[in-house]
Amino acid sequence: MQSEIKEMQERIAFLQRHIEQQDRAFLELSKEITALSQRLARMEGKVNQLGGDEEAPPADSKPPHW
Fold first, then answer.
1. How far apart are the C-alpha atoms of 21 and 13, rounded to whole Å?
2. What pTM, to 2 d.p., does this model score?
3. For a pLDDT cut of 70, what percent of the chain falls above it?
4. What kind and span of H or E run contains 8?
5. Out of 10, 13, 25, 62, which could bridge 66 as a Cys pair, Cβ 3.0 to 4.6 Å?
């Protein structure tokens, strides 16, 4: 019985560490997504300032020389 309790305690400790590691990873990913979203918004703004808001051809269309 004692060995079973000890094994369960070890498993719980492992799972707690694993959850903490996942929480840190999710926080880092969230920060990275936020930074990339801000960067994309800035780049879109620059493209629009340069006249990039003209209508672009569909992405799946072939170039004129095809």
1. 12
2. 0.61
3. 86
4. helix 2-49
5. 62
- Distance, in Å, from the CA atom of 7 to the CA atom of 44, rounded to the nearest integer, reads 55
Using the predicted structure, report yes or no on whether residue 53 has a pLDDT greater than 60: no
Give how far Cα 59 sits from Cα of 41, 55, 56, Å: 20, 12, 8
What type of residue sits at position 15? Answer: L
Element (H, E) at 46: helix 2-49
The residues, ordered by sequence, that sit 6+ positions from 47 with a Cβ below 8 Å of its Cβ are: 53
Cα end-to-end span (Å), the chain: 76
Place of tokens 């569909």: 58
Tell me how far the alpha carbon of residue 25 is from its chain's centroid.
Answer: 10
